[in-house]
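Appendix B, record 7
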Amino acid sequence: MNAIVRGEFRPLPGSDETERDKAVRRVADAVHRVNEAIIRAVEAGVSVELVRTSRYHDGRGNWGDQMIPTIREAAIAG
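Structure tokens (predicted):
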């Protein structure tokens, strides 16, 4: 039996994830990180809006939206 060393990353045994599955998981993971970053930014006092800037096409009927964040500082109460 192999001992797992702390901090060492290894593929899960029997993982037969396809390249398509990996790509979908990468997008889901990235969106999760973006959502966490948005929460931190809002809690720091800014408003965040994601705006589609372009749409990527692969020439085979598949496409994906590409985005940038727009940031608005909180209004100063006076």
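Remarks on this record: The chain has one domain: 19-73. The chain has one helix and two strands.
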